[in-house]
Amino acid sequence: MSTPLVAAATVVALVLAAVGGVSTGMRRRIGSAHVAGAVLLEALLLVQAAVVVVGMAGGHRPAELATFLSYLVSVVLLPVAGLLWARSEPTRWAGTVLGVAALAVTVMLWRLLDLWEVTRG
């Protein structure tokens, strides 16, 4: 895993969570800024997943492989699920849905990095 990519995705996720919180506070549904943030976050996560696949093809194996792969698949799907749910939410809480998904991505990314750094010896 790439620490700079994790940091970049964390920044994007935190900004997305903040934008979601502001839109909820203003009693507004999500807009193009929310969608753009979610798409950017998803792109960064897909690049990170590609880096992981290349690393694993090169012989790097996390000690807890099943947990790592579960987190990896989940973190890639989470922004998509959050955006789809937020887009279908007809109330002001759509921003909160997207914000919670973004915050979950942040926590999961750092846990993934932690798992990645512990290799089988």
What does this protein look like?
- The chain is mostly helical.
- It has one domain (3-117).
- It is 80% helix and 0% strand.
- It has 4 helices and no strands.
- The protein has helices at 3-25, 32-57, 65-88, 94-117.
- Helix 1 (3-25) runs antiparallel to helix 2, helix 1 (3-25) packs antiparallel against helix 4 and helix 3 runs antiparallel to helix 4 (94-117).
- The mean pLDDT is 93.
Compact overview of the structure:
By secondary structure, this protein is mostly helical. The chain is built from four helices and no strands. The chain has one domain.
Features:
121 residues, mainly alpha, elongated
Shape: elongated
The Rg value, from CA coordinates, equals 15 Å
Mean pLDDT: 93
SSE series: HHHH
Biggest pleated sheet: none
Question: Total domains, how many?
Answer: 1
